[in-house]
Amino acid sequence: MNLFQPFAVPYMQRALVEVLVLGALAGAVGVLVVLRRLAFVGDALTHTVFPGVVIAHLLGRSLLAGALAFGVLTAVLLTTLGSHRRVGNDAALAILLTSFFSLGVVLISRTRGFTADLTVFLFGRVLAVDRSDLYQTLAVAAVAALTLAVVHKELVLRAFDPEAAAAMGYRAGVLDLALNLLIALVVVAAVEAVGTVLVIALIVVPAAAARLLADRVGAMTALACLLGAAGGWLGLAVSYQVSVDHDLRLAAGATIVVVLVGLFLLAAAAAPLRRRLGRGRVAAEGGAR
Q1: According to the model, what pLDDT value does residue 84 have?
Q2: Segments forming the whole domain that contains residue 176
Q3: Confidence (pTM)
Protein backbone atom coordinates (compact mmCIF):
# COMPACT_ATOMS: atom_id res chain seq x y z
CA MET A 1 0.00 0.00 0.00
CA ASN A 2 1.42 3.35 -1.11
CA LEU A 3 0.91 5.84 1.70
CA PHE A 4 2.01 8.87 -0.39
CA GLN A 5 0.29 8.37 -3.76
CA PRO A 6 -3.21 9.45 -2.58
CA PHE A 7 -1.93 12.94 -1.79
CA ALA A 8 -1.19 13.79 -5.40
CA VAL A 9 -4.86 14.81 -5.61
CA PRO A 10 -5.53 18.45 -4.55
CA TYR A 11 -8.51 17.71 -2.28
CA MET A 12 -6.47 15.01 -0.52
CA GLN A 13 -3.66 17.50 0.01
CA ARG A 14 -6.06 19.91 1.72
CA ALA A 15 -7.48 17.07 3.81
CA LEU A 16 -3.94 16.03 4.79
CA VAL A 17 -2.98 19.51 5.99
CA GLU A 18 -6.24 19.68 7.93
CA VAL A 19 -5.73 16.40 9.78
CA LEU A 20 -2.03 17.04 10.43
CA VAL A 21 -2.83 20.37 12.10
CA LEU A 22 -5.79 18.95 14.02
CA GLY A 23 -3.91 15.82 15.07
CA ALA A 24 -0.96 17.76 16.45
CA LEU A 25 -3.11 20.38 18.20
CA ALA A 26 -5.53 17.84 19.69
CA GLY A 27 -2.61 15.72 20.86
CA ALA A 28 -1.02 18.62 22.74
CA VAL A 29 -4.25 19.68 24.44
CA GLY A 30 -5.24 16.05 24.97
CA VAL A 31 -2.24 15.45 27.24
CA LEU A 32 -3.63 17.98 29.71
CA VAL A 33 -7.09 16.44 29.38
CA VAL A 34 -5.74 12.96 30.13
CA LEU A 35 -3.57 14.17 33.02
CA ARG A 36 -6.59 15.92 34.57
CA ARG A 37 -8.87 12.96 33.76
CA LEU A 38 -11.24 15.26 31.93
CA ALA A 39 -12.10 13.10 28.94
CA PHE A 40 -15.79 13.51 29.69
CA VAL A 41 -15.35 17.30 29.52
CA GLY A 42 -14.00 16.93 26.00
CA ASP A 43 -16.87 14.65 25.08
CA ALA A 44 -19.39 17.14 26.47
CA LEU A 45 -17.87 20.03 24.53
CA THR A 46 -18.06 18.08 21.27
CA HIS A 47 -21.81 17.84 21.81
CA THR A 48 -22.53 21.28 23.22
CA VAL A 49 -21.13 23.09 20.15
CA PHE A 50 -23.69 21.22 18.03
CA PRO A 51 -26.51 23.81 18.32
CA GLY A 52 -24.08 26.54 17.33
CA VAL A 53 -23.19 24.60 14.18
CA VAL A 54 -26.87 24.04 13.38
CA ILE A 55 -27.85 27.68 13.95
CA ALA A 56 -24.98 28.86 11.74
CA HIS A 57 -26.09 26.41 9.04
CA LEU A 58 -29.71 27.58 9.19
CA LEU A 59 -28.63 31.24 8.98
CA GLY A 60 -26.15 30.57 6.19
CA ARG A 61 -23.23 31.71 8.34
CA SER A 62 -19.84 30.17 9.06
CA LEU A 63 -20.17 26.86 10.90
CA LEU A 64 -16.91 27.60 12.69
CA ALA A 65 -18.28 30.89 14.05
CA GLY A 66 -21.38 29.16 15.39
CA ALA A 67 -19.32 26.41 16.99
CA LEU A 68 -16.95 28.98 18.49
CA ALA A 69 -19.80 30.93 20.10
CA PHE A 70 -21.29 27.86 21.76
CA GLY A 71 -17.86 26.45 22.63
CA VAL A 72 -16.92 29.59 24.56
CA LEU A 73 -20.38 29.71 26.16
CA THR A 74 -20.02 26.08 27.27
CA ALA A 75 -16.54 26.64 28.70
CA VAL A 76 -17.75 29.61 30.76
CA LEU A 77 -20.93 27.88 31.97
CA LEU A 78 -19.07 24.67 32.78
CA THR A 79 -16.44 26.47 34.83
CA THR A 80 -19.08 28.55 36.64
CA LEU A 81 -21.52 25.72 37.39
CA GLY A 82 -18.77 23.20 38.14
CA SER A 83 -17.28 25.43 40.82
CA HIS A 84 -20.60 25.55 42.68
CA ARG A 85 -20.31 23.10 45.55
CA ARG A 86 -23.97 22.06 45.28
CA VAL A 87 -23.72 21.31 41.56
CA GLY A 88 -20.24 19.97 40.80
CA ASN A 89 -18.52 19.13 37.52
CA ASP A 90 -20.37 15.89 36.76
CA ALA A 91 -23.84 17.40 37.12
CA ALA A 92 -22.83 20.53 35.20
CA LEU A 93 -21.46 18.40 32.36
CA ALA A 94 -24.60 16.29 32.17
CA ILE A 95 -26.89 19.33 32.20
CA LEU A 96 -24.99 21.20 29.49
CA LEU A 97 -24.43 18.14 27.29
CA THR A 98 -28.04 16.97 27.24
CA SER A 99 -29.64 20.40 26.98
CA PHE A 100 -27.38 21.84 24.27
CA PHE A 101 -27.25 18.69 22.16
CA SER A 102 -31.03 18.26 22.37
CA LEU A 103 -31.46 21.88 21.29
CA GLY A 104 -29.30 21.18 18.24
CA VAL A 105 -31.30 18.07 17.32
CA VAL A 106 -34.61 19.95 17.70
CA LEU A 107 -33.38 22.73 15.41
CA ILE A 108 -31.96 20.47 12.73
CA SER A 109 -35.03 18.21 12.76
CA ARG A 110 -37.14 21.14 11.49
CA THR A 111 -35.22 21.27 8.20
CA ARG A 112 -35.93 19.25 5.08
CA GLY A 113 -33.42 16.42 4.67
CA PHE A 114 -32.22 16.83 8.22
CA THR A 115 -30.85 13.26 8.43
CA ALA A 116 -28.12 13.99 5.88
CA ASP A 117 -27.28 17.29 7.58
CA LEU A 118 -27.14 15.58 10.96
CA THR A 119 -24.70 12.97 9.62
CA VAL A 120 -22.38 15.67 8.28
CA PHE A 121 -22.43 17.64 11.54
CA LEU A 122 -21.78 14.56 13.66
CA PHE A 123 -19.14 12.82 11.53
CA GLY A 124 -17.61 15.59 9.43
CA ARG A 125 -16.55 15.93 5.80
CA VAL A 126 -12.78 16.03 5.83
CA LEU A 127 -12.49 15.22 2.11
CA ALA A 128 -14.66 18.24 1.24
CA VAL A 129 -12.49 20.78 3.10
CA ASP A 130 -11.77 23.76 0.87
CA ARG A 131 -9.21 26.55 1.17
CA SER A 132 -11.55 28.75 3.19
CA ASP A 133 -12.21 25.94 5.69
CA LEU A 134 -8.49 25.25 5.92
CA TYR A 135 -7.63 28.88 6.60
CA GLN A 136 -10.27 29.05 9.33
CA THR A 137 -8.91 25.90 10.94
CA LEU A 138 -5.37 27.25 10.82
CA ALA A 139 -6.49 30.54 12.41
CA VAL A 140 -8.27 28.81 15.30
CA ALA A 141 -5.39 26.36 15.72
CA ALA A 142 -2.91 29.24 15.89
CA VAL A 143 -4.94 30.94 18.65
CA ALA A 144 -5.18 27.67 20.58
CA ALA A 145 -1.45 26.93 20.17
CA LEU A 146 -0.50 30.44 21.35
CA THR A 147 -2.81 30.16 24.36
CA LEU A 148 -1.39 26.74 25.20
CA ALA A 149 2.17 28.06 24.99
CA VAL A 150 1.36 30.93 27.35
CA VAL A 151 -0.36 28.91 30.10
CA HIS A 152 1.12 25.43 29.61
CA LYS A 153 3.38 25.53 32.68
CA GLU A 154 0.55 26.67 34.93
CA LEU A 155 -1.86 24.05 33.56
CA VAL A 156 0.69 21.28 34.13
CA LEU A 157 1.23 22.50 37.70
CA ARG A 158 -2.56 22.55 38.22
CA ALA A 159 -2.74 18.96 36.94
CA PHE A 160 0.01 17.56 39.19
CA ASP A 161 -0.13 19.75 42.31
CA PRO A 162 -3.24 21.96 42.65
CA GLU A 163 -2.29 22.91 46.22
CA ALA A 164 1.07 24.25 45.09
CA ALA A 165 -0.60 26.14 42.25
CA ALA A 166 -2.99 27.77 44.72
CA ALA A 167 -0.12 28.58 47.10
CA MET A 168 1.74 30.31 44.25
CA GLY A 169 -1.26 32.56 43.65
CA TYR A 170 -2.80 30.86 40.62
CA ARG A 171 -6.59 30.81 40.73
CA ALA A 172 -7.95 27.33 40.05
CA GLY A 173 -11.09 28.69 38.39
CA VAL A 174 -9.10 30.78 35.92
CA LEU A 175 -6.85 27.85 34.99
CA ASP A 176 -9.85 25.54 34.62
CA LEU A 177 -11.52 28.09 32.36
CA ALA A 178 -8.33 28.34 30.27
CA LEU A 179 -8.23 24.56 29.80
CA ASN A 180 -11.94 24.39 28.98
CA LEU A 181 -11.47 27.14 26.39
CA LEU A 182 -8.53 25.25 24.88
CA ILE A 183 -10.64 22.11 24.56
CA ALA A 184 -13.42 24.20 23.01
CA LEU A 185 -10.99 25.68 20.46
CA VAL A 186 -9.82 22.21 19.43
CA VAL A 187 -13.43 21.08 19.02
CA VAL A 188 -14.24 24.20 17.00
CA ALA A 189 -11.21 23.75 14.76
CA ALA A 190 -12.12 20.12 14.07
CA VAL A 191 -15.91 20.33 13.82
CA GLU A 192 -16.15 20.69 10.02
CA ALA A 193 -13.46 18.14 9.26
CA VAL A 194 -14.28 15.22 11.58
CA GLY A 195 -17.57 16.28 13.14
CA THR A 196 -18.64 16.76 16.72
CA VAL A 197 -18.54 13.06 17.63
CA LEU A 198 -15.18 11.90 16.31
CA VAL A 199 -13.15 14.86 17.60
CA ILE A 200 -13.06 13.37 21.10
CA ALA A 201 -10.97 10.51 19.72
CA LEU A 202 -8.42 13.01 18.38
CA ILE A 203 -8.16 14.62 21.80
CA VAL A 204 -8.01 11.53 24.03
CA VAL A 205 -6.58 8.56 22.11
CA PRO A 206 -3.14 9.94 21.06
CA ALA A 207 -2.61 11.45 24.53
CA ALA A 208 -3.59 8.19 26.26
CA ALA A 209 -1.18 6.27 24.03
CA ALA A 210 1.61 8.77 24.71
CA ARG A 211 1.10 8.45 28.45
CA LEU A 212 1.74 4.72 28.17
CA LEU A 213 5.08 5.33 26.47
CA ALA A 214 6.48 8.44 28.17
CA ASP A 215 6.92 9.71 31.73
CA ARG A 216 7.87 13.35 31.19
CA VAL A 217 5.18 15.82 30.14
CA GLY A 218 7.35 17.27 27.37
CA ALA A 219 8.01 13.87 25.83
CA MET A 220 4.37 12.90 26.30
CA THR A 221 3.20 16.04 24.50
CA ALA A 222 5.60 15.60 21.58
CA LEU A 223 4.63 11.94 21.20
CA ALA A 224 0.89 12.73 21.38
CA CYS A 225 1.28 15.35 18.64
CA LEU A 226 3.21 12.88 16.50
CA LEU A 227 0.66 10.09 17.02
CA GLY A 228 -2.27 12.42 16.31
CA ALA A 229 -0.73 13.64 13.05
CA ALA A 230 0.39 10.14 12.02
CA GLY A 231 -3.07 8.73 12.70
CA GLY A 232 -4.61 11.39 10.48
CA TRP A 233 -2.19 10.75 7.63
CA LEU A 234 -2.46 6.95 7.80
CA GLY A 235 -6.26 7.08 8.15
CA LEU A 236 -6.63 9.26 5.06
CA ALA A 237 -4.26 7.09 3.01
CA VAL A 238 -5.96 3.83 4.01
CA SER A 239 -9.44 5.23 3.41
CA TYR A 240 -8.52 6.51 -0.06
CA GLN A 241 -6.73 3.40 -1.26
CA VAL A 242 -9.32 0.93 0.02
CA SER A 243 -12.16 3.02 -1.43
CA VAL A 244 -10.53 3.69 -4.80
CA ASP A 245 -8.45 0.57 -5.44
CA HIS A 246 -10.71 -2.04 -3.84
CA ASP A 247 -14.12 -0.39 -4.27
CA LEU A 248 -14.87 -0.72 -0.53
CA ARG A 249 -16.11 2.64 0.68
CA LEU A 250 -14.54 3.73 3.97
CA ALA A 251 -15.48 6.97 5.71
CA ALA A 252 -12.29 9.00 6.09
CA GLY A 253 -13.03 10.43 9.55
CA ALA A 254 -14.03 7.10 11.03
CA THR A 255 -10.99 5.40 9.44
CA ILE A 256 -8.72 7.95 11.12
CA VAL A 257 -10.24 7.07 14.49
CA VAL A 258 -9.80 3.33 13.85
CA VAL A 259 -6.12 3.93 13.01
CA LEU A 260 -5.66 5.99 16.17
CA VAL A 261 -7.16 3.21 18.27
CA GLY A 262 -4.82 0.76 16.53
CA LEU A 263 -1.85 2.95 17.47
CA PHE A 264 -3.11 3.02 21.06
CA LEU A 265 -3.28 -0.79 21.14
CA LEU A 266 0.30 -0.97 19.85
CA ALA A 267 1.36 1.45 22.58
CA ALA A 268 -0.44 -0.65 25.19
CA ALA A 269 1.37 -3.76 23.93
CA ALA A 270 4.75 -1.99 23.98
CA ALA A 271 4.31 -0.38 27.41
CA PRO A 272 5.23 -3.49 29.50
CA LEU A 273 8.39 -3.97 27.45
CA ARG A 274 9.33 -0.31 27.99
CA ARG A 275 8.87 -0.71 31.75
CA ARG A 276 11.02 -3.85 31.84
CA LEU A 277 13.76 -2.14 29.86
CA GLY A 278 13.57 0.84 32.21
CA ARG A 279 13.88 -1.37 35.30
CA GLY A 280 16.81 -3.21 33.71
CA ARG A 281 18.61 0.04 32.96
CA VAL A 282 18.09 1.30 36.52
CA ALA A 283 19.38 -2.03 37.92
CA ALA A 284 22.43 -1.90 35.62
CA GLU A 285 23.24 1.66 36.68
CA GLY A 286 22.86 0.69 40.34
CA GLY A 287 25.21 -2.25 39.87
CA ALA A 288 27.78 -0.07 38.14
CA ARG A 289 27.88 2.22 41.17
Answers
A1: 75
A2: 5-280
A3: 0.84
